[in-house]
Amino acid sequence: MNKLNKYSSYWIKFLENKRNKYSLFIFSFIFILSLFAEVISNDKPLVMNIDDKLYFPILMTYSDKHFGGYFDTEADYKDDFMTRKLEMKNNWAVFPFNPHSYNSINLNNSKPNPAPPSKYNYLGTDDRGRDVLARLIYGFRLSVLFAFALTAIGILIGLFFGALQGYYAGKIDLYLQRFIEIWGSMPELYLLIIFSSLFEPNIFLLIVLLSLFGWMSLSDYVRAEFLKGRNMEYVIAARTLGLSNTEIIIKHILPNSMVSVITFLPFRISGAILILTSLDFLGLGVPPDTPSLGELLAQGKDNIEAWWLSISTFLVLTGTLLLLIFIGEGIRESLDARS
Amino acid sequence: MKILEIKNLSLKSKKNNILLLQNINLILNKGEILGIVGESGSGKTLMGLCITKLIDPNIFEIISGEIIYDGKNLLECPEDYLRNIRTSMVSMIFQEPMLSLNPVQTIQTQLHEVIKLHITRNEKEIDTLSEEIITKTGLADIKKILSSYPHMLSGGQRQRIMIAIALVCKPEVLIADEPTTALDVTLQLQILDLLKDFKNKNNMSMILVSHDLDLIKNYSDHIIILNNGQVVEEGITRDIFERPTNEYTKKLISSRPDNMISSEAGNVKILETKDLSCRFALNNAFFSKNKKYFTALSNINIHINSAETIGIVGESGSGKTTLAMAIMQLLDYKGNILFDNQDFSKLSEKDIRKHRDDFQIVFQDPFSSLSPRLNILEILSEGLLAFNKNITNEKLVNICSSLLTEVGLNHDMLSRYPHQFSGGQRQRIAIARALSMKPKLIIFDEPTSALDAIVQKNILELIVSLQEKYSLSYCFISHDLKVIKSISHRIYVIKDSKIIETNSTKNILCNPKSDYTRSLIKSSFLS
């Protein structure tokens, strides 16, 4: 019960600051919303009624033949055939709020691509005629999920090596530290360039490559906390009580060294978002048809007159990073025992 | 003749409006030493800082009172005037000589700075003045001292430098705030004698702040006893020590540990060390072959009988704690440690873990020996769970609450966290944790050094009563001979990693063999 009290007191302290509260709520709201991107922004109707039969294209794949067409491929609900069909009596369809998916191309656009915002494309289209709003929503979701994954993996590896070095110290520490020095001086960017030309670039390869290097900045802090912690008298006392090393690490030192991990957490997440964006901007990141903020920024650079590309992406990116930094500072302040 | 007077001084903390000093009145006469005694948190340091207005105005607020020096109320004087007065007229010495000296400047720079500010800018005069004052503090090899940095000097030397800096302007008043607490006992007397000598030669007045009653008794003319920011008793030193009137003063004076042991020691050897040695590598270089070592213990032979307390007394750095760690099997050593006739030096770490319930340790600092994130139940049940994973929760609560009662705490405190307890209570919890394993031997590593005098006595009484009840063996480590002699059957004197003398407590005190033991006894005011 006491433990619960302690955590709820951190929580209350965090919410006392209005900036923390709103940042967290806005971010969680947008993030949770983006998890349902398929329902918000899609070129398939949510539900439709054709010839007195209900269809749920968003859940199931119907072929063109299903509706009396000629192809075995999935129906394109935006082409003339389907549009005409939907316009018939008693037939109706409910489209999502933004009736475009991240890679659906608006072929009916009257203006050349990239087209400025219109009532069909709320934030305009990019240079291939894809809807910018849809790409932003999907791109945001991918960025944040990617950042969560990268951060989680980085923290796990960092904690493991930091704990190993700090707790056992001596020889293990010495050799691992030398390994980190060598490993850390490898040119990460060149490796990424080389690997992206060797393999088909995809998001998992990126996570693996970035994780190989990302843990080092954290393990240093964890190591320092463990070096400090292993000589605390309560840790020595635990040893004299006959606890095993694993028990001591998990029960005594880890909780006391989590502060650095938690403090860096939001900054690591925003850093990861930035890394993905930069790599995509350079064309080293995810494959071209994947929705990504970096790719949109690159398009904005190439089409400088298409202001809707760069400004909207810029706002999404800055807003996300700003919210994460605010949350991070809030967490740091509420965990600080001195205040 | 009055030289400094404090009238009705009250001070509060701005943060939570707590009164830290209440209506303090004191008079310091020319040429006398005024002792201020009190426990930690009684406001004695704050009072010293108030005199030259060195308190942080963002944290503290002076509510009322006057501090009169040289016909002026210092509390109303402008900062310029005060800056001039500090050091040149009213000087201060602090407890920690390492923290009071700037680590990146030589002694010469720091000493000259003061002289330049307050006395003269003539280079030659500065040199003669600084050499003169260093000579007076009893330091040899002045040139070398002056050109060295603080870390190159020992604690005693540093404190002498601090004294030189404080006294170079020949102040009228010196405020010495625990000037010897951070130093080894044998150095204490030297430093205090030096200060007294200075005082007599220059007709200076001195305020000596300390928690050490014996020290105050031997050096001060008048004393003031502070408790919770209030003066509870004041007067001529000898009168107060002979006829204390206030309850608190009586308690304080009687808190000096007397002989407490009543039980006889057994004659079965519980623990024996044979040629125990221990060394640490100094240069931990990666490729270097000829490593240098620091010898922390050399050929230590001690033994502990059942139901016996041995005291190990020595200065900081003498190897006392290393000895405790070696006995606890927490570091690598050479030689043999026999526990119940079983040679631990031959066992693996895993096998030793099975025997850990037989010997336990209680540390010096009760604030760092309890994990801040565990509650008392978790702390006490940790060892029990390590030896018996299947123990039921109900049984654990029962055992732990009876342990708390055993050490004089309320058994309903199990769900609290360490920070909710005072230092003395925490030390009781640490003792309860050691007891939870039902050990045969408990090592106490300076268990009372971080505690106030009255609390210290209570803890010692608890320790002794537990020994009588369970016939435990104790190994009691301390730098304080007064504590050691009050509870030990036998004493080992350790110096420079060697045992230099051992005998029964009575014999050591009555006819010490080595000079070092004699100086220890003298500086503990036991002779």
Helix content, binned percent of chain A: 55-70%
β-strand number of chain A:
3
Termini separation of chain B (Å)? Answer: 35 Å
CATH topology of the largest domain in chain B: Rossmann fold
| Strand line-up in the sheet with most strands of chain B | 6-7-8-3-9-10
Helix content of chain B: 25-40%
Number of helical elements of chain A = 12
Q: Find the CATH topology of the largest domain in chain A.
A: MetI-like fold
Task: Give the assembly state of these chains.
Answer: heterodimer
Q: What do the pLDDT scores of chain B average to?
A: 88
Low-confidence stretches of chain B: none
Note the total helix count of chain B. 20
Query: Which class of secondary structure composition applies to the elements of chain B?
Result: alpha/beta
User: Largest interface, with Cβ-Cβ < 8 Å?
Assistant: A-B, 22 and 33 residues
Q: How many strands, what sense, and barrel or not for the largest sheet of chain A?
A: 3 strands, antiparallel
**Which superfamily, in CATH terms, is the homologous superfamily of the largest domain in chain A?**
MetI-like
Our count of domains of chain A comes out at: 2
Give me the side-by-side strand order of the main sheet of chain A: 2-1-3
Overall form of chain A: elongated
Radius of gyration of chain A: 25 Å
Essential attributes:
heterodimer; A: 339 residues; mainly alpha; MetI-like fold; 2 domains; 3-stranded antiparallel β-sheet; 3 strands; 3% strand; elongated; B: 527 residues; alpha/beta; Rossmann fold; 6-stranded mixed β-sheet; 20 helices; 21 strands; 38% helix
Task: Characterise the protein shown here.
The complex is a heterodimer of chains A (339) and B (527). The model of chain A has no long low-confidence stretch (mean pLDDT 86). By secondary structure, chain A is mostly helical. In chain A, strands 2-1-3 form a 3-stranded antiparallel β-sheet, with helices on one face. Helices cover 65% and strands 3% of the residues of chain A. Chain B is α/β, with parallel strands linked by helices. Chain B folds into 2 domains: 2-254, 3-Layer(aba) Sandwich (Rossmann fold), CATH 3.40.50.300; 269-523, P-loop containing nucleotide triphosphate hydrolases (Rossmann fold, 3-Layer(aba) Sandwich), CATH 3.40.50. Chain B is 38% helix and 25% strand. Chain B is built from 20 helices and 21 strands. The longest helix of chain B is centred in the middle third of the chain and has 18 residues, at 185-202. Chain A binds chain B through residues 1-2, 174, 178, 232-244, 247, 251-252, 255-256, and chain B through 284, 286, 325, 328, 330, 353-354, 356-357, 359-361, 363-365, 368-375, 382-383, 386-387, 415-417, 430, 433, 437.
